[in-house]
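Problem 12. The chain below contains 179 residues. Write out its predicted structure in token notation.
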Amino acid sequence: MVGWGPVAFEGTMSIRFQNRTSFRMDRLIHERVHDPYKRKSKLPEQTVCPNCRAVFKEGRWQWADSWPIDAHKQTCQACHRANDGYPAGIVTVTGSFAVSRRAEILNLARHQEQQENREHPLHRIMNIEEKPDSIVIKTTDIHLPRAIGEALHHAYKGNLDLRYTEESYFIEVKWSREQ
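Solution.
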């Protein structure tokens, strides 16, 4: 059967109508950002992460004092990423200033994590690698690295570089300062 229907072209956001012999709805929508940890379907209300005890209710993950005994159990994206060792963001701190003030910088990063984590349980630091000439902080989301980088820049000035990967859910933040 010949009919008119929309055709999406790869790499563009425009849609053009073209005479076609078949019409496939599954080719109309192309995922712009690929996050392998994002759920394809909504979780049932009162889902609890067995690892961190965050609760999915009212459409989002949040901290709760209690939950029903028969609540559905599902690992949250942050715990899943941490278990797999697959960060969504990386903050790299370099420079002689950073090396000399390592403890202050780590305290600032942990403070940013605590502030973010109160409202957003999925925003966490996964791992901190302390190297002789740098500090590498890996996180479970893309918002916390930006917050850490901006806090470093606000507190100590220096050079801040933010790089988002358009196709995937990932951010790389680099902050540096020499004495």
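Discussion. The chain has a mean pLDDT of 83. Students who got a different answer should revisit the alignment rule from Section 12.3.
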